[in-house]
Amino acid sequence: MISETFTTDLRKMIEGDKQMTSRPLVVGKPSHILSECGANAEQDITITKKVIDKAMRPEIRDEEGRMVGNTGHGLTEGLIVDSIMELESPTMIFKGRQDNSLLIITNVANQKAMENSIPFTKGCGWRIHTLLC
User: Fold this and answer.
1) Is 78 within the bounds of a domain?
2) Containing H/E element for 93?
């Protein structure tokens, strides 16, 4: 269940609101399907300012097409919101590489028509580590 204040809180975080950037943003609770895949329904899903910044930073590639430097993923605020909303009913869920982790594929696509994947790990609650498109 996505928090009712998520989109407003995300906007504040992007704009640099000190209160919002000093702690992880609560996205909400895991959906039923995520709980069925091992997420504790009582723990919050969170995302940090660092993850949001990387997701929104432009993608930088060299002449051979490899990502270089402090590259990001070039997502818009709208794509981030859409991706998070898709956690309610993702396209696919895979066991992650790390213990207590999931890789979630959503139907949200970027301007290059690449589907979004969300690595999702359990620590103190469930934290979104990367938003990729």
Assistant:
1) yes
2) strand 92-95
